[in-house]
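Team,

Forwarding the record for the chain on the shared tracking sheet. I've put the sequence and predicted structure together so nobody has to dig through attachments.
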Amino acid sequence: MSPAADREPAAGAAVDAATARALEFPAVVEMLAALTAFGPSRELAAASLPVADAAHVGLLQDQTDEAAALLREQAQATIGGARDLRPHLERARRGGRLTAPELLDVAATLRATGLFAARLDDWRRPHLAEVRAQLDDAPALRERIERSVDETGEVLDGASRELAAIRRRLRTAQDRVRERLNTMLRSTDLAGVIGEPVVTVRSGRYVIPIRAEAKGRLKGLVHDQSASGATLFIEPLAVVELNNAWTQAALEEQREQERILDALSGEVERRADALLGSLVALARADLWIARARLASQLDGVRPEPTDDAVELLSARHPLLGASAVPIDLRLGDRFGYRALIVTGPNTGGKTVALKTLGLLALMHQAGLRVPAAEGARLTIFRRVMADIGDEQSIAQSLSTFSSHLRNVVRFVAAGGASTLVLLDEVGAGTDPTEGSALAMAVVNRLLDDGAMVAATTHYAELKTFAQEHPRVTNAAVEFDVQSLRPTYRLSIGLPGKSQAFAIAERLGLEPTLLADARRRLSREHASIEETLGAIQRAEIERDAALARARDEELVARRQRELAEAGVERARREAARILAETRRAADELLDRAERDVAELQRELGRQRGAHARQSAQGAAARALDELGLRAAAARESARSARGPHEAAAQTAPVGASPQPRVGLWGRSRTLGTPGRIVEVSGRTGRVTLETDGPRVVVPGSDVEVVDEPVSGPAPRDREADEMRRRAAAHVSPSLDLRGERVEAALERLDAYLDEALLAALDEVRIIHGTGTGALRRALRERLTEHPRVRATRGGRREEGGEGATIAEL
């Protein structure tokens, strides 16, 4: 590729080859290609490029989303076993014969296609559903190939009846010639003639070895001799006809095998177009799955597209692995600036910060997830341009400064809206005064044209420029002077220092030399550094104060939540105790009523007037005794219900009307209501028609009450009302995304209590994916909770692995 072409993006691409190399995008592409399953998808991965069209980026990201969803549902989803059939299909199209191993490749690919198609049979999302419609596993062709060729590439006897018959003749001819030669080897007539008693093959004929000096003793055809010439391999005349029969059968076998391979190749030729389309569909799906697997490896997220902003929290360079230090990157008008000037010591991470910003933008626009925290946002850049590293060229007589400046000239000409420009050591390689002035002019021009800019520098003048320009801000990579090691953290809003004097002092440079060096700094430079140092200290103090205020607010909020949760738990505990007490009282009353019912049934079995009178007397005595027992039960129930409820039930309500037939009455002792059906003037007893058996009680024990309204009992209505009110304000799902683990667990405990009170059978806990720490903590707490029956991961429509379903 020519140098000019190397610096121009391909049609529809957002980056040129030189910038892609500078940002190490090809290395990410190699990681992607390594996750593909076969050649066609590997070629698609290698050809991946960032695109500049927002709709196209959305399409690529949707495809990755679908593949990730497929892997969540079917972790082993793969097209493993597929082969690159393009050369085979091309030869078949031209009428060529496919070899047995090539036909096995076709069968293996068709088998992999069928398995993958079966995984997508019930898939309803559009992109993989479209792939499913294009897959052709040609089951009849696959079965015929597998019936004709074995795993070693040999044509099977079952490939045709003719081949089976030929091979039977071949084996018979082979056995005859070998048997005849073995008989000759055992013959005493040839003692001293045979060199070694073994039958072998030379020039496609069965022969035996004899000593060269005895060749006259055995008539036959010499086909070969040993290297020393001491042994001759002779086909005796006696087996020539047998060898001919064997050779003829072998030729017939070969012709029949070729006929079978031609027939199978013809079937492949007739389906070549469909098989090629299926192969392309498989390759596309495999590429999407590879993108999803890479996202899982990098713990990547799909950025939210924005019009003109970059916000990457905990962004990590994908090529640094576990050693990558997360950094926060913000850029755009919504943050009050469109350019970052990154300063700090050498090897402190300035260039890595630039590469991380540019590389993640390219990954997003190539359909890849980016290694950052949830909530990432990225604009779709029309063009990404980066000048990173040294492209000094002796052949082209370009110095370091000239090579950088050539790129800058190109960037200024191509810059504009939706453009990201990354400049490493802008203005370096020439006089510092002129270089810094040129750098400020370039950044200002790019901003005027609508571009976003991120640049690194050591120039103090650029730090001041960033502090004073309304659309530019400083950023610093941190450095630990004590350990002489960079921390690689990025602080936006603060200017960095090169730390040259501090590093020299820690390394033991003489104090007199350091003092001399400090005196040699220009007054202007010293003033700039002092001013920037004061600004940095003020910013640090402000951030510390803000952090303290946030911590205090968090503590106060947590204490308030704990207090509210404690009050709510106390209320729930009181309600639970009251409900249990009521149940105990109800059980006492139920036992008493069952005893009365049993006595009533006993009375009904008595016959005759005299017997009935005697029984009524006995019943009266039993009722008096039972009345005492019921009164004791009710007294226990009143004590269990509490003083307030007992007082409410025993408080006088005024004079009660006398019991009369037709009115409703209630036994004070038993608490049983019923319609009055009989009033005995002689004995003073009253008979009540209840829901169960009739109850006969003393008239003094009966108070007249209003006829009850049909419906649930008061206690049932009260419980239903409590559940209705609880269910009205308890949501079936709880969103804990963004919460810290401790706060999330407290909210979970309180929410489960409310859900249980509201009689919810199932709840959904939303925690997101992220690093997985919050998900693991919540699922562990749910597993240990005594009122949680079972838990499971969310289905696709419920939020997938970003949610957990708990059955209560």
